[in-house]
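Section 5: illustrative case.
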């Protein structure tokens, strides 16, 4: 099996910085912060050999898209697979409680899981 390259966007790096700052301000123990970040980076490595382990985001919104998301602890890693290039591009990471559909600009239509 051919490994995929995993490319992290600048936005992903900014998200990681934001998460780190939030956890630090929240007085999380350094060991807890380290564990959270190690879990995230470990999950990113898994995408090298198994890029389809994440779920299709299109099932969570009425707006067609080709994002996938991988659950990593309390966080969701959003990415796309480019098969012809054997590339996984990581776009963002958000806490599961954040309004990620809005942040990904997939909010024009109501999510199929939201009630009116």
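Designed sequence:
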């Amino acid at each position: 099996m051919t490994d995929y390259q995993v490319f992290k966007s600048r936005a992903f790096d900014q998200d990681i910085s934001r998460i780190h700052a939030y956890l630090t301000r929240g007085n999380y123990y350094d060991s807890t912060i380290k564990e959270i970040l190690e879990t995230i980076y470990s999950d990113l490595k898994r995408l090298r050999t198994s890029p389809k382990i994440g779920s299709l985001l299109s099932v969570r919104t009425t707006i067609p898209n080709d994002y996938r998301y991988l659950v990593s602890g309390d966080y969701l890693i959003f990415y796309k697979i480019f098969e012809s290039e054997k590339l996984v591009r990581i776009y963002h990471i958000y806490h599961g409680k954040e309004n990620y559909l809005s942040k990904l600009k997939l909010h024009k239509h109501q999510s199929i899981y939201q009630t009116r």
